[in-house]
Write a structure and sequence with these properties.
The protein is an alpha/beta fold. It has 24 helices and 15 strands.
Length: about 650
């Protein structure tokens, strides 16, 4: 493979630092605006916007599925008015804005452009990124809406529009970050991301001229993950750089070197952050930061770091500041930026890079033979679930050491997380009511004739496969809401349910599994059929990794498992439990909406006289909520510190046996 490191070196000794970002947004547009301005005043040099789950999945704040989710994991943006407030007093033409948005990326970009035009700014000067990578949503995060082919067409719409109208904007940010969060190995992360990039480019290639296409390739960016094995991660990034250079040169004929550069931003690994001894997360984040900065020729263009307490809940402004300061100390106090790449011609690094590239190419070839990423979705999903199962099994057995979790678990009381329990930021429960009231007011004041006309134009563009961006921008100006935009698209494209990746293939080598299987068999014998478990993912949280691992281990132990994937209402879960005659319900909720969802679900169980069915819940749930949840009738609460899957399955058997007695 052609080497490209020497060709992209910066000849100056002192490099410019990367863009400093923190991933931010919560509660409301006004609260997020204050957070943005505060962070910028502390030396942050770019914005990375987190949107709440209703915004990401195309629902307005007053939709049934949005209950309990509004403002929880990001900012709710229902319409142009919310966008105005979000960027109040922040000059869009001087800002580099990254928006972590995928299924509704065309819409959020349309709102951003509409706001810029409203402020009489030159749209072609805007700089930033929309993530706009739907493939990884089918595989890991779950904020997809439409079927894959239609989604790829929307990605192509955004890319074509940006090339012609916002040339400094990155129209797609191929996101391997969430693949690693879903359990991907280094080789899977690189291979699946590269396959996604080529799938998108192959579609866009048909929309632009041969002369224009290299410039479109040059705007593709990536968003990657960096885990704790930081030598391996350095090699991964160097492999990414080499492979992308080779693909651009040989597959796409891009001759200009700067258009072949692997441009990427990064958030370091959140999967490895622990609720136990959370102060250790600071060291983990720092080591992972080094993985994407030490190798100059494979250095990130922009970095956002998680906060030390993200495994416990929403970070406070001070926690985000601490992560920002970590970047600033590395960039400004050390001599990192004074040297060329210290890994060039290092035989150990080069050997590791070659091995990664060999494995990646084999996986890419397999995906190509299957017909590309859309055709290979089920294969890729199963691979991620399997790899994650192996990762967890190694932690359970102690083969992989996690300090404070399965080794060195004794601890002094932490000065960071002890005390009154305010070590994370809590979203005010009134926020949802305020947001819905604001949405109602917005609808009452707009011109409904213009709204209906704009929606008709949207539908017409979607049906005729005309680029959706122009119609979306006009809809934004007319006052159309996020939910209305997405519902219009749903009418044309329909909705999609991605593969779960859950199989009965062996995932665990745990020595205690035979003992667990024996216990499950004994309880099943008393029931005169196998224990039947319903795993539910209520609300809009699409992070299904935990649910998938519980499903696999339960199957291995001898359970019958009903798992229908993500984004279910409490009513759908209860009806499914009734229709399937299940013995136990297990819920996975990570977005912070647990109290509202559990209240609705347990009330439904009471209404239908189903309270004998035990309910358990797992997720990022603060301990102060445990007693409230138990009073609702929930048997047990599991958090990330409960990593032993066999113990959880054993508990389930006990609860079923007790309820049947």
């Amino acid at each position: 493979m052609k080497k490209c490191f020497s060709s992209i070196k910066d000849s100056s000794m002192n490099s410019k630092p990367w863009i400093f970002r923190t991933y931010a947004g919560h509660s409301s547009a006004s609260a997020s605006n204050k957070l943005f301005r505060d962070n910028l005043s502390k030396g942050q040099t770019g914005l990375s916007v987190a949107f709440d789950l209703p915004t990401q999945t195309g629902y307005d704040s007053d939709h049934q599925l949005a209950r309990g989710e509004v403002g929880k994991v990001g900012v709710p943006i229902n319409h142009l008015g919310d966008m105005r407030m979000l960027f109040k007093d922040i000059p869009l033409d001087k800002m580099n804005t990254s928006m972590t948005i995928n299924a509704t990326a065309p819409w959020l970009l349309a709102l951003y452009v509409a706001l810029a035009e409203e402020q009489d700014l030159k749209v072609n000067t805007l700089q930033g990124t929309v993530q706009n990578d739907i493939i990884k949503e089918y595989l890991s995060r779950g904020t997809y809406i439409f079927p894959p082919e239609d989604s790829l067409n929307l990605i192509a719409d955004v890319t074509e529009y940006c090339y012609r109208n916002i040339p400094k904007w990155n129209p797609i940010n191929i996101c391997s970050y969430h693949l690693q969060e879903a359990g991907a190995t280094i080789e899977e992360e690189v291979a699946f991301a590269i396959s996604t990039a080529t799938a998108v480019l192959d579609k866009i290639r048909r929309r632009v001229s041969t002369k224009e296409f290299p410039f479109v390739v040059g705007r593709v960016s990536f968003f990657v993950n960096a885990g704790i094995k930081f030598i391996s991660e350095i090699c991964k990034m160097r492999a990414f750089v080499e492979l992308w250079n080779e693909i651009c040169l040989t597959k796409y004929g891009v001759k200009e070197e700067k258009l072949r550069r692997f441009r990427y931003g990064v958030q370091v690994n959140s999967l490895g952050l622990t609720e136990q001894q959370p102060e250790n997360n600071v060291y983990r984040i720092l080591l992972e930061l080094l993985a994407v900065t030490l190798s100059k020729n494979a250095r990130a263009r922009a970095i956002q770091l998680p906060a030390w307490n993200e495994a416990m809940g929403l970070p406070r402004p001070w926690d985000q500041q601490w992560s920002l300061r970590m970047q600033q100390v590395l960039a400004y106090e050390t001599d990192l930026l004074e040297y060329e790449d210290i890994f060039d011609q290092n035989p150990i690094i080069e050997k590791k890079v070659k091995r990664i590239l060999k494995e990646v190419n084999l996986k890419v070839e397999k995906i190509d033979k299957m017909g590309g990423t859309v055709a290979a979705l089920d294969y890729m999903k199963r691979a991620l679930v399997s790899s994650n199962a192996k990762r967890l099994s190694k932690i359970e057995s102690g083969e992989t050491i996690v300090v404070g979790v399965n080794k060195f678990t004794t601890s002094e009381e932490s000065g960071l997380s002890s005390g009154d329990g305010d070590s994370v930021q809590v979203v005010d429960k009134k926020i949802e009511k305020i947001q819905i009231s604001s949405l109602t007011d917005w609808r009452s004041k707009r011109n409904n004739n213009l709204v209906e006309k704009a929606k008709d134009n949207l539908k017409d563009a979607a049906r005729k496969k005309i680029n959706i961006m122009t119609a979306s921008i006009e809809a934004a100006k007319a006052g159309v809401t996020t939910g209305e935009w997405a519902d219009t698209m749903r009418e044309v494209f329909g909705e999609f349910r991605a593969p779960t990746g859950v199989t009965i293939s062996k995932s665990s080598d745990s020595e205690s599994l035979p003992t667990l299987q024996k216990k499950v068999k004994e309880v099943s014998k008393k029931l005169k059929r196998n224990i039947k478990l319903l795993i539910g993912k209520p609300g809009l949280d699409g992070h299904s990794n935990g649910a998938e691992q519980i499903a696999m281990r339960a199957k291995e132990a001898g359970f019958d498992v009903v798992y229908q994937g993500i984004r279910l209402t409490p009513n759908q879960i209860v009806n499914s439990a009734l229709e399937e005659s299940v013995h136990i319900i297990g819920l996975s909720i990570l977005s912070g909406s647990h109290l509202e969802i559990l209240e609705d679900l347990t009330n439904l169980l009471k209404t239908k006289n189903m309270t004998k069915i035990p309910v358990i819940v797992g997720g990022i749930i603060p301990e102060k909520d445990f007693e409230i949840i138990r009073k609702m009738g929930v048997k047990k609460v599991y958090t990330p510190k409960d990593y032993d899957l066999n113990t959880i399955i054993s508990d389930m058997s006990d609860f079923v046996e007790q309820s049947a007695a």
